[in-house]
Amino acid sequence: MLNITVDGKKIKAREGEMIIAALLNAGIRINRFTSKYKEPRGFFCGIGQCTDCIMTVSGIPNVRTCVTPVEEGMVVETQYGRGEWG
Amino acid sequence: MKRCDVIVIGSGPAGLSCSIEATGSRAEVILIDENGRPGGQLFKQVHKFFGSKQHKAGVRGFDIGLQLLEQVNKLGVNTLLNTVAYGIFEEKTVGIIKNEKIEMIQGKKILLATGAIENPIVFPGWTLPGVMGAGAAQTMINIHRVLPGKRFVILGSGNVGLIISYQLLQAGASVIAVVEAAPKIGGYQVHASKIRRAGVPVYTSCTIKEVKGGKEVEEVVIVKLDNSWRPIKSTERSLTADCVCIAGGLHPSIELAQMAGCTLGFSPELGGYLPTHNENMETTIQGIYVAGDTAGIEEASTAMEEGRLAGTDMAQKLGYLSQEKALGKKEEIRESLLALRSGPFACLSHRAKINILQAMKANRGE
Q1: Distance (Å, rounded) from C-alpha B248 to C-alpha B365?
Q2: How do strand A54-57 and strand A75-77 relate by DSSP bridges?
Q3: For every one of its 86 residues, what pLDDT tens digit does chain A have, with 9 covering 90 and above?
Q4: pLDDT in tens, B200-258
Q5: pLDDT (tens digit, 9 = 90+) per residue, B148-196?
Q6: Is B261 found in the same domain as B213?
Q7: How many beta carbons lie within 10 A of that of residue A16, not counting itself?
Q8: What is the extent of the structural domain holding B203?
Q9: What is the domain partition of chain A in residue ranges?
């Protein structure tokens, strides 16, 4: 097991799994809020095609959490609109 | 710039089969996939395949995936994983991104086996977290081993909707309803019976009117439909659920084919727009081939045969396979495809594929 941080909260993740799996396991289903109407979005396709599950990961916005594996110490943040480079 | 005989984009059943066929004839192949693991969607298919023994009936999808990977490894196919093919340019050059770096590779032949994308069905609330493609739910439970929710409503009773309902039950979720707009269940009886025996209700002539929830799915409102598929007033019913799976079919992933300038045709039976191709899976651009769901939504079994067909034709045209040998092989593969497309559902694909071949002939001015 390894540790990642989601919006400041520490959660456990299995080595090799995708970020989305660790999030769902922790009961987190909202990945981002849209730019214009600030609507919540969660994953839709789960295989990297639709980009609905993008979040800001270790300072990089628009990372597809369904096809990006977890890494020890990763900092995952809910993305607002287009996100910001950290 | 790296050069090779054949570039295969996508390592699902079609891409793997083409790579095996072409490499087996000594063509130099580069196989590209954006994922960290080859196999495409085979590894989430935990159910047994149908058809004849020749088509691996009774074997589970992931076992078929393992068999293909074993062959690929044995043959030593040059496989680039975590590599995105972002574009196709002049003279069969493919732009790839690997380790955040751009590279160009050039092939004499290219196979586009990029698969398909799930169709959304839109209703108020369809963008709420908790609404997902049925295949997405399948990826979560069978690949990532995590449940995206507890109480599921499935929209669509085709084989995908039925199989995923059953697999969700196996994974420990509650499936509270399968909702189907048509007056009868779309998929095979054997799958429908399994979920009916497990006590899951299937509501036919019914659809989702609305999904409600503050920030996530909390409630699903279903409504009855009349003979013209219009909602019937005051027949709404509210279900408490936290997940909705949309099993509304798939459409071919054709972006690279469009970029390459391949002529497209529209085929409702095969999922929408797809590259027009000939009996060897070659598109209207010479040397660019398609196979699997990119060439029309069908099954993994047909995808493998189409991949083999493309690989055989490439090997022949590149001079690695005698005409006689190639023709014999292609004949055998086409017979196999015909057998696969002879069932009550699959015969529709067969007819649609004949239309595509005719469109190809018209395109060539024959």
Answers
A1: 36
A2: antiparallel
A3: 999 999 999 999 999 999 999 999 999 999 999 999 999 999 999 999 899 999 999 999 999 999 999 999 999 999 999 999 98
A4: 999 999 999 999 999 999 999 999 999 999 999 999 999 999 999 999 999 999 999 99
A5: 999 999 999 999 999 999 999 999 999 999 999 999 999 999 999 999 9
A6: no
A7: 11
A8: 120-246
A9: 2-80
Same domain? B139 vs B111: no
Tell me the shortest Cα–Cα distance from B185 to chain A, in angstroms: 24
Number of domains forming the structure of chain B: 2
Of B38, B45, B72, the closest CA to residue B60 belongs to B45
Note whether B16 and B100 are same-domain residues: yes
| Residues B126 and B241 grouped into a single domain | yes
Within its chain, how far is the Cα of A54 from the centroid?
A: 6
Residue with tokens 């080859």, as numbered in its chain: B38
Q: Are B146 and A31 an interchain contact pair (Cβ–Cβ within 8 Å)? A: no
Residue linked to tokens 């067909």: B309
ipTM of the complex: 0.97
Task: Look at domain A2-80 and name its CATH class.
Answer: alpha beta
Put simply, the answer to whether B144 touches A42 (Cβ < 8 Å) is no
DSSP 3-state percent helix, strand, coil across chain A (nearest 5)? 10, 35, 55
Contact B132 A43 (CB under 8 A): yes
In a shared domain, residues B232 and B130: yes
CATH number of the domain to which B286 belongs: 3.50.50.60
Beginning with the edge strand found earlier in the chain, give each strand of the sheet holding B206-212 in spatial order. B206-212, B219-224, B237-240
Q: Cβ contacts (< 8 Å) between A17 and chain B: which residues?
A: 144
Q: Determine the distance from the C-alpha atom of residue B282 to the mean position of all C-alpha atoms in its chain, rounded to a whole number.
A: 19
B135 pLDDT exceeds 70? Answer: yes
pLDDT at B259 over 80: yes
A46, B131: Cβ pair inside 8 Å? no
- pTM for this predicted structure: 0.93
Tracing tokens 């130099």 back to the chain, one arrives at B28
